[in-house]
């Protein structure tokens, strides 16, 4: 049996299965953003405004406050902006791994020196640092505001040793995959990498047509588990560089 005939048979089988599949084939683009606030002396107004812009663009945002943030940050402004039900404290988190799978991007709107140091030194000893490292290990986007590196958060004058540490942190974080941007560009960086990079399908059949109908920017396809993925669909996904991921 030659390859042309095999491809024809595949197409016929896919068409028949699609006609018999009652589940909707609508592709759902998710826009879920996890914002982690660490301890900082920086003003939160701009960071909150940037996240508000993301929300206006359709992003669903959950806030996590580090343990130190709950002791130094103005929690009232965060609660008012996002609602107390959307603001969590890291010490109250359970099933942390679920957060990594649920959220498409993680943003650190006020990236402080303590958090940067922990990440650069790979000290995964808190829920917040664990979340960031897990996200990076899975190739997810992590955006952090670089403002704290451009102005000192400490009262003493920074010297050459402190500056060297800052440069070492920046280089290490970049190697890990953290994208450092000015606080005023957080929303732009998040919106620019739109939810088109990930798509979800709920139907039990993933065919070549399903892959062909995806937007050109899609890099990940989350599918219902279990599902039938045709060989031709896998071939098309591979050619386009699309990762097929079962939904947990």
Structural overview:
This protein is an alpha/beta fold and 248 residues long. It has helices spanning 3-20, 45-56, 69-72, 75-82, 96-102, 113-120, 127-137, 147-150, 160-176, 186-192, 208-212, 231-240, and strands at 27-28, 32-37, 60-65, 87-89, 105-108, 141-145, 178-181, 198-201, 205-206, 220-223, 228-229, 243-246. A six-stranded parallel sheet has the order 4-3-2-5-6-7, sandwiched between helices. Strands 1-8-10-12 form a four-stranded mixed sheet, covered by helices on one side. A two-stranded parallel sheet has the order 9-11. Strand 2 (32-37), helix 2 (45-56) and strand 3 form a beta-alpha-beta unit. Helix 2 (45-56) packs parallel to helix 10 (186-192), helix 5 packs across helix 7 (127-137) and helix 6 (113-120) crosses helix 9 (160-176). The longest helix is centred in the N-terminal third of the chain and has 18 residues, at 3-20. The radius of gyration is 22 Å and the shape is elongated. The protein starts with a helix and ends with a strand.
Summarize, please.
This protein is of the alpha/beta class and about 250 residues long. About 45% of the residues lie in helices and about 20% in strands. The strands form three sheets. A six-stranded parallel sheet has the order 4-3-2-5-6-7, with helices on both faces.
């Amino acid at each position: 049996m030659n390859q042309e005939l095999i491809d024809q048979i595949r197409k016929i089988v896919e068409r028949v299965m699609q006609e018999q599949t009652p589940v909707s084939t609508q592709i759902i683009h998710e826009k879920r953003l996890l914002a982690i606030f660490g301890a900082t002396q920086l003003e939160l107004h701009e960071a909150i405004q940037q996240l508000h812009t993301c929300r206006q663009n359709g992003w669903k945002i959950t806030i996590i406050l580090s343990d130190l943030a709950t002791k130094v940050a103005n929690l009232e402004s965060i609660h008012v902006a996002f609602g107390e039900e959307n603001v969590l404290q890291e010490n109250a988190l359970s099933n942390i791994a679920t957060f990594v799978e649920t959220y498409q991007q993680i943003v650190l709107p006020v990236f402080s020196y303590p958090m940067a140091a922990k990440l650069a030194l790979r000290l995964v000893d808190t829920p917040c640092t664990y979340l960031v490292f897990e996200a990076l290990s899975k190739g997810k986007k992590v955006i952090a505001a670089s403002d704290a590196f451009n102005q000192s958060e400490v009262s003493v004058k920074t010297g050459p040793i402190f500056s060297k540490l800052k440069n070492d942190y920046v280089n290490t974080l970049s190697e890990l995959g953290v994208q450092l941007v000015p606080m005023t560009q957080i929303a732009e960086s998040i919106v620019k990498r739109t939810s088109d990079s990930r798509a979800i399908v709920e139907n039990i059949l993933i065919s070549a047509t399903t892959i062909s109908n995806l937007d050109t920017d899609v890099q990940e396809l989350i599918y219902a588990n279990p599902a039938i993925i045709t060989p031709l669909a896998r071939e098309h996904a591979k050619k386009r560089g699309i990762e097929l991921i079962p939904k947990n």
